[in-house]
Amino acid sequence: MAEIHRDLEESKNHPAIKGFLELCDEARGDSAMSLALIQSRPFVSYWPTLILNRWHEDRKDFLYSFWGSKLSTVYGMDLTGKYILRGEFKETETIFWTAHKDVITDLKPVYLNTSIHWLDKEHQTFNAVIIPLERDGKITETIAYVAFDS
């Protein structure tokens, strides 16, 4: 994997990212995003490249509770039910873990940009945004939306 850039203007201004965040703002109003909102009809088209992560305090790690179908195709694996810090790709795992932790700590979006070269898959460039997700009145989860450039 190439270098992962954080909070680039390119990511913040990416049309698909902006569209996703506008829909989130419209859906949530003054509240945080929730699982019920992300499962509603307006978000269906985003599901293939959504990632939901749940913080597990005992493990001090995030569990992928949902890994979109297009992500499974691009990465060649479904990470649902796995933790970010698995030890397979330590450098990138740490970057992703830190980004998600910052989101639930600071309650602000984090934007990522990188190009991936995955096994025998095509070169893929993506921009992503990670935002807080509320469950049972607490922000202990995140939603990441990944927008691939074709």
Question: Can you offer a commentary on this structure?
Answer:
By secondary structure, the protein is of the alpha+beta class. The protein has one domain: 2-Layer Sandwich (Beta-Lactamase), CATH 3.30.450.20. Helices cover 31% and strands 33% of the residues. The chain has five helices and seven strands. It has helices at residues 9-12, 15-28, 35-38, 69-75, 90-106; strands at residues 5-6, 33-34, 50-56, 61-67, 110-116, 124-135, 138-149. Strands 1, 2, 3, 4, 5, 6 and 7 form a seven-stranded mixed sheet that branches. β6 and β7 (138-149) form a beta hairpin. The longest helix has 17 residues, at 90-106. The radius of gyration is 14 Å and the shape is globular. The model has no long low-confidence stretch (mean pLDDT 91).
Summarize the structure.
The protein is an alpha+beta fold and 150 residues long. The protein contains 5 helices and 7 strands. The mean pLDDT is 91.
Write the layout of secondary structure elements.
Elements (H helix, E strand, L loop, with lengths): L4 E2 L2 H4 L2 H14 L4 E2 H4 L11 E7 L4 E7 L1 H7 L14 H17 L3 E7 L7 E12 L2 E12 L1
Parallel strand pairs: 2-6
Antiparallel strand pairs: 1-5, 3-4, 3-7, 5-6, 6-7
Rounded to the nearest angstrom, the radius of gyration is 14 Å
CATH topology: Beta-Lactamase
Return residue spans where pLDDT drops below 50 for at least 5 consecutive residues: none
* Helical run tally: 5
Structural class of the helix and strand makeup?
alpha+beta
**What is the strand tally?**
7
Helicity, as a percent range: 25-40%
CATH superfamily: PAS domain
User: How would you spell out the order of helices and strands?
Assistant: EHHEHEEHHEEE
Mean of residue pLDDT? 91
Shape: globular
Largest sheet: 7 strands, mixed
CA-CA gap between termini: 17 Å
CATH architecture: 2-Layer Sandwich
Number of domains: 1
Question: What fraction strand?
Answer: 25-35%
